[in-house]
Task: inverse folding
């Protein structure tokens, strides 16, 4: 039996383009005499479409193209993902009933699912966590069972497939979450295996976003499925990038066939590929995967995601405010690699608070990256703004004559972001990124309409420690030379917006990075999320060090001499996280997601829950 | 039987404060010898908490306070909403199992629900549309039925209540959506009524946000429930405001008892109130409600919402950039009413493109509102930025020497928003609003970090036509005099950022408001949402005029002489809506929700789906 695994590049809502990819792949599969070609979940319409699922005219176009795909199945059967529509029934929001479904086409037409009397196999388990909103848009097999008063088992059915040699086999078809059934009382694949005609092959159509470490989980989950059932498992995942507004996800593919304890991968991560695999042939023994280092994974996902955004949004040029610090240095590096050095312009915007150390680091970076560089100061504009504040005072506004430092710091940041960088970028038909890291975004350590501004925050799902780690990875393993200047890696992290942040005196950010990174991870990324109460309890129980890990625990012991000192710092940053941080995140640029908990749609939050 | 309806003010995550309100209300109910006091859904923890539900320590505090509430129930029974937790079971995300639940406390302890063997009555129908995310956080009775292999009916049970006179009655308890069952195959209240001990009283605990026109729907739905079942229905809804990040919702209460064809309201909309009602007494016949006009409803919701935000976020002062146009005039008016004139500062920021007409309107507005006023020009700063762009060119950046008009328009807008207004506000410890209306937000007709910036967009759920209507409503019905200057109401809407937008020559916005408002509503607010294809079809079928309504249809017939002209305009704005508009909404300030479809969490969207 010859299976064509089509690791398709799926673009959200790009029906014609997705259809073209599919048609081309089907022709290839026919030429290779494949019995069946398998595409990812939602390979026709795309997956993260938000509430665009509510547009009947879009749904009708999906149906039209589904029929066109069916017409292509005269030789090779086609299994693909799209929206299954039952125009005679309603979703629970009152709109037309839609399913996240797999369609099987053979002999020029769509095969009816005998279990439910509809022309598709619906997803049974709908994820509603992290960035997923499946229940918002789709009905499912469990609800159908309840509505019809039948058991889920009776609605479960295998799909018949006639091979080119005339043999008839049966497929157990699931979609993504259907295989991730640990936390569900219903087990879709187990129900398929209870059917009298035992499935010959299990298939899983996925549209499963990349997350650090997720591929390892997939390997273990689908190997287990193949092993426990004795059936080969065809796993087909999309590649590309789709966004849910604030959060941009990449799709890494990692498709292949799990058989006889072996994983036969198709193509490379993040790259569209189709490959015909004869599963009758014995699988060649092969290590399950070559494990990538954490920074190799991050590097691949970031550059792929950034490249996709560039293409998707038709971007050509980028202006980057380079301060000499590590965040803007890494951001410039990433952009130079993805957009090309000739399309990246580095601008340094000194005030009297910027040290020669960081200014020369900024210039060296641009030089090393081979990017054009300009220096545009902000002192004249600050003086002008200062005068206009006095003018407002003279006109009767109760503006204090001594501008508090924080007010002046924010004026500087906005002058850089919203006046110079935005003006230069706009003049060049370019965009400019926000270089904030996850630690800063957590507590809102940035100025709205200043360094908070940008078309994208490529680093906002990386803790400050990871920013350093990734910068070192680039120098050591990607460039093999010091492209990111050593001084950017060694200078104390600082906004350089006041004399109190003078790096030449070792002064800088109020965050103690390895410690606060670890603390913030406990609030945001840990499975059972921590808050002030649980962490104070951990302090009291002496379990806090274990939670933080050795490096952060050591720092903690140096930073806090007492429980009170620990609590003061804890509550201060917690208030920033849930208050001003949350408020600023509402207006933050889109974020490239890497971890299990990226800000935005993957970390839904109300503003102002400081009292929790 | 004496029922205390507690239309509680519920603050998100403010456990102690919510508990205090409840304790005080219970004491009042006891003094009034009520048999039972009923609080809203999630009256203890609040409802819109985002993923804060994932914090075990928060959940434990909810449980502790639930026990403390139980201890208060020695005389009057207490029915309230909180999170029901089953620590021994898991939600489908793998975390501890949580229910959106009603708790009944009597004789000092929590009453067990015999139907499921847990100490609460869970919500059966979980809404997953609009701003709701119930399935993300909560398990429900339907899933429990499936897991246990039992019918929903067998898990449905009534709650026993002993009255102070010794009689025993039964309650049918539902939570919010349980009564809105039209689109669900399961009907919770119908199942309660099938029980052998027919319920004596139906109760619905709600945390149901305000939407224009929703109260009328509630009246008809709950009257019907009371009428068809013959049971009185106690409807208790929260008041206050809770946000889901980008979108801020108000809760209007509108609690009361539906009995014998009569609605007995409790208190006033948006105002916390408790009231004891003896349902044994015959209900006095009363009209179901006095209908408010559309602008009365909007006015009440906007001022309440703005007031809540002010209190919740501890705001005192506001700076408003007043252009002389209608949006900033209405925004200043709203803020002056809610914050007090003495706390509102109006700043006009003219360039050479601003006409004396609008400048004098801005000044007159501040004068009429009794707000301090300042005029701070932007020409000097524009010249400085212009020079710095030349400097960048001299340093080798390929900046064109003729700045295109759009670039220069955006530089002006950002200079006003991010430099002057933000600087003045910051100096005054004030905030500044974004005055964009829904028509502008739809297509991104605003400058990021310029007029797009602000702490809140109070008008972003009002179409431009509604902005005019509400301004007139204020002048005519609220002030009874021309506070908002006539010239702001009559001048052509214009950004005044170039000579092409000269209002003295009648030039202004590219949007033709009554027409485009109606068009955009079809994309966003109509039940089955329209797109270019469906509207072109409507043009071909001659059904478009009916969809648009008479005023917009008349304009359309004047604007477009051909299908091609209509299509050109349609596709241009559709591209703006799904492309740049969506991109800018990601970074937009929070929006006060009024309609059935406010931008943000109520209108989830991916960026860049222009091709749909």
Result:
């Amino acid at each position: 039996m010859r299976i064509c695994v089509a690791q398709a590049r799926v673009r959200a809502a790009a029906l014609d383009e997705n259809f073209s990819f599919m048609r081309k792949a089907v022709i290839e599969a026919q030429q290779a005499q494949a019995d069946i070609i398998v595409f990812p979940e939602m390979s026709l319409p795309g997956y993260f479409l938000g509430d665009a699922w509510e547009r009947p005219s879009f749904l009708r176009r999906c149906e039209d193209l589904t029929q066109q795909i069916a017409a292509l199945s005269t030789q090779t059967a086609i299994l693909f993902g799209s929206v299954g529509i039952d125009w005679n029934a309603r979703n629970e929001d009152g709109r037309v009933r839609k399913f996240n479904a797999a369609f099987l086409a053979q002999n020029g037409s769509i095969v009816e699912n005998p279990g439910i009397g509809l022309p598709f196999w619906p997803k049974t388990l709908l994820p509603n966590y992290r960035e997923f909103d499946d229940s918002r848009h789709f009905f499912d097999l469990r609800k159908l069972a309840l509505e019809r008063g039948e058991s889920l088992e009776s609605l479960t059915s295998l799909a018949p497939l006639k091979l080119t040699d005339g043999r008839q086999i049966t497929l157990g078809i699931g979609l993504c979450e259907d295989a991730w059934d640990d936390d569900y009382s219903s087990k879709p694949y187990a129900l398929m295996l209870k059917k009298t005609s035992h499935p010959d092959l299990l298939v899983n159509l996925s549209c499963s976003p990349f997350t650090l470490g997720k591929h390892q989980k997939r390997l273990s989950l689908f190997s287990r499925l193949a092993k426990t059932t004795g059936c080969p498992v065809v796993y087909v995942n999309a590649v590309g990038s789709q966004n849910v507004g604030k959060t941009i996800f990449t799709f890494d593919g990692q498709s292949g066939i799990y058989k006889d304890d072996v994983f036969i991968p198709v193509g490379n991560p993040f790259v569209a590929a189709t490959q015909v695999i004869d599963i009758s042939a014995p699988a060649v023994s092969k290590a399950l995967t070559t494990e990538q280092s954490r920074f190799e994974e991050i590097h691949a996902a970031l550059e792929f995601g950034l490249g996709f955004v560039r293409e998707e949004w038709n971007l050509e040029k980028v202006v980057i405010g380079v301060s000499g610090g590590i965040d803007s240095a890494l951001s410039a590096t990433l952009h130079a690699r993805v957009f090309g050095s000739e399309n990246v312009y580095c601008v340094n915007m000194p005030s009297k608070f910027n040290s020669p150390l960081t200014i020369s680091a900024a210039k060296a970076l641009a030089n090393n990256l081979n990017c054009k560089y300009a220096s545009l100061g902000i002192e004249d504009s600050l003086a002008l703004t200062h005068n206009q504040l006095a003018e407002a005072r003279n006109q009767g506004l109760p503006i204090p004559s001594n501008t508090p430092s924080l007010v002046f710091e924010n004026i500087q940041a906005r002058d850089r972001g919203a006046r110079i960088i935005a003006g230069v970028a706009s003049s060049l038909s370019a965009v400019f990124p926000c270089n904030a890291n996850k630690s800063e975004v957590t507590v809102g350590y940035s100025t709205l309409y200043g360094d908070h501004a940008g078309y994208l925050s490529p680093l906002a799902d990386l803790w400050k420690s990871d920013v350093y780690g990734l910068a070192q990875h680039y120098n050591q393993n990607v460039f093999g030379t010091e492209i990111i200047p050593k001084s950017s890696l060694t200078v104390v992290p600082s906004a350089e917006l006041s004399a109190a942040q003078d790096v030449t005196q070792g002064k800088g950010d109020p965050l103690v990075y390895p410690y606060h990174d670890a603390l913030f991870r406990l609030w945001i990324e840990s499975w059972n999320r921590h808050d002030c109460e649980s962490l104070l309890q951990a302090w009291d129980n002496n379990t806090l060090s274990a939670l933080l890990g050795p490096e952060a625990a050591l720092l903690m012991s140096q930073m806090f001499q007492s429980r009170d000192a620990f609590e003061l710092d804890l509550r201060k940053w917690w208030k920033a996280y849930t208050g001003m941080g949350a408020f600023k995140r509402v207006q933050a640029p889109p974020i490239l997601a890497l971890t299990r908990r990226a800000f935005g749609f993957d970390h839904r939050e109300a503003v102002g829950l400081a009292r929790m």
Notes: Chain A touches chain B through 117 residues (CB under 8 Å). DSSP finds 20 helices and 20 strands in chain A.
